[in-house]
Design a protein that fits this description.
395 residues; alpha/beta; nine-stranded mixed sheet; eight-stranded parallel β-barrel; 10 helices; 29% helix; globular
Length: 395
């Protein structure tokens, strides 16, 4: 891939995102084979650019916002594959999704319940609502609220199809998976005993760890997946389950390319400054560059010595430390650094408007389609109060 990356850098410059569709689709296929007893849902928030490349056997797309719904509609994703979630839902947006054909919605609160109910009644459609159980935070509803809604279900023009639950992300062991499934199972048993209500489906955010800081994370990730599958298989014998995954699918397929534009030694520490930075890279668990993500130099010449470098971005903030004490060899001005495992959240979660820097291009790479630029490099000056048309230069 390094040769492909260098050709892309020559054409598009740096910083630059590259997403390998072959790797992405292979990861989804692998997960689907291990979890062949449940349905699979792709969480778009992890990386919306990948949505158009999700295989047909993936049952759903979790859509957390109106904007993500618009992307699905643009990609012509079938409405029956869209699961509309999110803590903020406007009535007009819900109605637009319903007009498109979306019927599956999560419900985060009594206020959302009212909006969904009024939309269903006004449009004379049956919406399939998944009541989201809170994991003791701002998301979802308390058990008491869910019990009360189910007890009064005949008062609503809705079909309560299931329970939606997402606990913690980046799980590094299966203990939390077991605990969360026990919580869901207990709730389902109680509403059946008290109200005779049969939960038809569980939409569950599995939230497995993507280990950004291992040299070869594939083995540990697959081991964690297989151990989780044992627990999920038992649970699925009693309930119909759809598993939500985003980061676990997307992280491994992404690369972030950035160029070394300055070098110095301060206080005996070698610093390399890149034209990108922490505003365009996100590694969950990273703090002030204390951990080392996967990074190497493109077209690095063979050398016998290694030098320890602290890599920084080009932002005017002490927080723009990408990583410390990484052994890279003798860096040179103009070297291209390739950061791996950048396929989830990096492209959407950074402070893209900070310092009014350009938004990097996004390239989709595959063996079959080659390289496709799906987002060109874009200036941000117009979003920070600058010119709208043309640039006036005064001498």
């Amino acid at each position: 891939m390094d040769q492909v990356f260098m050709e892309l850098v020559k054409e598009y410059g740096t910083p630059l995102y590259v997403f390998d569709m072959d790797v992405f689709q292979k990861r989804i296929q692998t997960v689907a084979e291990v979890l062949d007893f449940v349905k699979i849902c792709y969480c778009m928030k992890a990386n919306p650019f990948l949505a158009s490349e999700v295989p047909e056997f993936v049952s759903r797309f979790e859509v957390c916002s109106y904007g993500e719904f618009l992307l699905c509609r643009q990609y012509k994703i079938a409405p029956e594959r869209i699961f509309y979630t999110g803590v903020y839902k406007e009535e007009r947006q819900i109605k637009e999704a319903v007009q498109y054909g979306v019927r599956n919605f999560s419900c985060e609160s009594r206020n959302q319940l009212k909006i969904l109910d009024e939309a269903a009644e006004a449009m004379n459609v049956q919406l399939h609502v998944f009541l989201r159980l809170s994991s003791n935070n701002q998301f979802g509803m308390d058990r008491a609220d869910i019990f009360d809604i189910i007890a009064r279900q005949k008062e609503y023009a809705l079909h309560f199809a299931g329970i939606h639950y997402y606990g913690v992300s980046q799980k590094r062991d299966t203990v939390k998976v077991k605990v969360e499934l026990d919580i869901i199972g207990q709730l389902c048993d109680e509403v059946r005993q008290k109200y005779g209500f049969l939960v038809e489906e569980i939409e569950y955010g599995l939230g497995l760890d993507s280990d950004y800081f291992q040299k070869d994370p594939f083995h540990s990730e697959m081991q964690l997946l297989k151990e989780s599958a044992v627990i999920l298989r038992e649970f699925s014998k009693k309930y119909c389950v759809t598993i939500e995954m985003g980061r676990f699918f997307a992280a491994c397929c992404g690369y972030y390319l950035t160029k070394v534009i300055d070098m110095k030694i301060n206080g005996g520490i070698r610093y390399a400054i890149a034209d990108g930075g922490s505003h365009q890279m996100h590694y969950d668990g990273q703090m002030l560059g204390m951990k080392i993500p996967p990074v190497h130099i493109l077209e690095k010449k063979t050398e016998t010595r290694n030098e320890e470098w602290t890599l920084c971005g080009s932002l005017c903030t002490h927080n723009d430390l990408i990583t410390r004490k990484v052994l890279l060899g003798s860096l040179r001005l103009g070297d291209i650094l390739c950061f791996g495992y950048a396929g989830a959240y990096s492209v959407t979660e950074g402070m893209v408007l900070f310092l009014t820097k350009d938004i990097p291009p996004v390239i989709m790479h595959s063996h079959e389609k080659g390289n496709v630029c799906v987002r060109p490099r874009s200036e941000t000056v117009m979003y920070n109060g600058g010119y709208a048309e043309g640039r006036k230069t005064e001498i």
